[in-house]
Design a protein that fits this description.
Chain lengths: ~210, ~290
């Protein structure tokens, strides 16, 4: 496991479109269809020891957005039978986008869609809110040894966690034409999404070149 | 009354007392008329006005609750305002002046800052079936009913209604999605909820704010208390600042123990270190940012 920028981890993977399409919650009719897709939303399995596939709340909107905005020759689907679709609602203020399986050729499209979706639905909303700032002037009168710096600095850190901007969590498994894959997992501030997705692109490219 | 006339009334919010219930009633009549002729654009415009009126109505109600020491009820009202603003922003952009919406948003946030609540219950569940609030159809992940969550249809916001779910449990969190889920203690003898929180900071603010729309702001500064005030705290004890780190690895490395100092900037300050005079030129309200000292 590599840790390249804060919150971004890279894991080895043996998952690909064939392994996911072979899951028990995918019908025979759907199997071959899913393997032809460019991007798949794949579920989490085993939450709280429940052996059922679940997707995060908001998956409906995200899938609709991706399908509406993807270029014509890129297809997106969700890896589950219609009647088995379920959402995991945790009500903890985290933006959970779930897990994505992406063919190498669709990576730039995926990154564009993901970044645009997060910017439009979360970053713009956060940016429009009034900010809570804490001024650090270090001039409390009981301080015996005042700091060398007298100029105050601003720290944008809300005093309570529920006033902080939400954090983002997602993972993307990139699959090459031979079925080899790598998983990139991010858990961190939502405002870093552009930097993170660019880093994922770079890491994948470097890994391919190295091999 | 037309929508334009209602909007003209609403422009005066804060400057004069408005009868929000009456305005909401008038908007609902106009909305029904728009929906009857399938004028979706007008119905949406009326929804926007309805949201703005509801936000202000709830804002004044929140202050009434605060004055009545119904702090939890006021907290829930503040959350409803937050949710309302979130829905509104998808369809209506506002600057720092129009309809005083930014003022309300900032006031809500500042009041939330000074509330004592830190721990919340967060429910965990698996949602197995949902219906669309517009067409009542069961939501299909591959075959959309055509209604998008958050969009306005016939003057109402589309959302999903969960009709089947498995409840998994409750987690204790510091950053909940639902702020109403505050943790309270229970009286072991009577089984009744007891409010053990201290609302002193909120009460301080209310002692100088006479009107919900009175200009005020909150300035938070990080300060340091002398280590000599904590000489009974051991180096390996938890740091008095509340970080959960050991004292020797936290504030002992700094010039003092960190704490947050709240200062209210109000129009009519009373004596005491918590208050400072609000003067229009001091605060950069066009950006909503606090002034740098």
């Amino acid at each position: 496991m590599e840790n390249v920028i804060p919150g971004l981890t890279v894991n080895t993977s043996n998952e690909n479109f064939a392994t996911w399409a072979a899951q028990s919650f995918v019908s025979d009719d759907l199997r071959s269809i899913l393997q032809e897709k460019s991007i798949l939303l794949v579920p989490e399995i085993g939450f709280r020891d429940r052996d059922i596939p679940v997707f995060p709340v908001g998956t409906e909107n995200l899938l609709e957005y991706f399908q509406k905005n993807a270029p014509a020759n890129y297809s997106i689907d969700i890896c589950v039978n219609e009647d088995l679709y379920a959402e995991l609602s945790l009500h903890h203020d985290y933006i959970r986008l779930g897990r994505f399986l992406v063919k190498e050729i669709a990576l730039p499209v995926f990154i564009g869609l993901l970044t645009a979706y997060i910017t439009e639905n979360y970053i713009k909303h956060e940016d429009s809110k009034p900010k809570v700032e804490i001024i650090d002037n270090s001039t409390h009168q009981t301080i015996i040894n005042p700091p060398a710096e007298s100029k105050p600095s601003i720290e944008k850190a809300p005093p309570k966690k529920y006033l902080a901007p939400p954090k983002l969590k997602f993972s993307v498994t990139i699959v090459d034409s031979n079925g080899a894959s790598k998983e990139y997992h991010y858990d961190g501030p939502v405002k870093n999404v552009k930097e993170v997705t660019e880093e994922i692109k770079t890491l994948w490219k470097n890994d391919k070149n190295a091999n | 009354m037309t929508r334009t006339q209602i909007e003209a009334e609403l422009i005066q919010v804060g400057a004069k007392t408005l009868d929000y219930s009456d305005l909401l009633f008038k908007v609902s009549i106009l909305k029904k008329e728009a929906v009857a002729v399938n004028n979706q654009i007008e119905a949406k415009n009326l929804w926007i006005i309805e949201q703005i009126i509801t936000i202000h109505k709830t804002f004044t109600e929140a202050f009434t609750l605060l004055r009545s020491n119904l702090f939890y009820e006021a907290w829930c009202a503040l959350e409803r305002i937050e949710i309302g603003l979130g829905s509104l922003k998808k369809h209506f952009s506002y600057d720092t002046t129009i309809y005083k919406l930014f003022f309300v948003e900032k006031a809500v946030k500042n009041i939330q800052v000074i509330y004592p609540y830190r721990l919340f219950g967060s429910t965990e569940m698996i949602k197995k079936e949902k219906k669309c609030s517009v067409c009542d159809k069961v939501v299909s992940i591959r075959n959309s009913c055509g209604h998008t969550v958050g969009e306005i249809y016939d003057g109402e916001e589309c959302h999903r209604i969960v009709t089947q779910f498995d409840f998994l449990g409750v987690a204790l969190v510091e950053n909940p999605f639902n702020k109403f889920s505050v943790m309270f203690l229970t009286n072991p003898k009577t089984g009744e909820k007891t409010d053990h929180y201290q609302y002193d900071t909120v009460k301080y603010l209310l002692s100088v704010i006479s009107d919900p729309y009175e200009n005020w702001d909150l300035e938070i500064s990080k300060r340091y208390a002398s280590h000599s005030e904590y000489n009974k705290v051991g180096r390996n004890d938890s740091c008095p600042c509340g970080s959960t780190n050991k004292y020797k690895k936290c504030c002992l490395l700094k010039q003092g123990v960190e704490y947050l100092h709240y200062e209210f900037i109000v129009e009519h300050p009373k004596k005491g270190s918590l208050f400072r005079k609000y003067e229009g030129s001091d605060l950069n309200l066009t950006t909503g940012q606090l002034r740098i000292l």
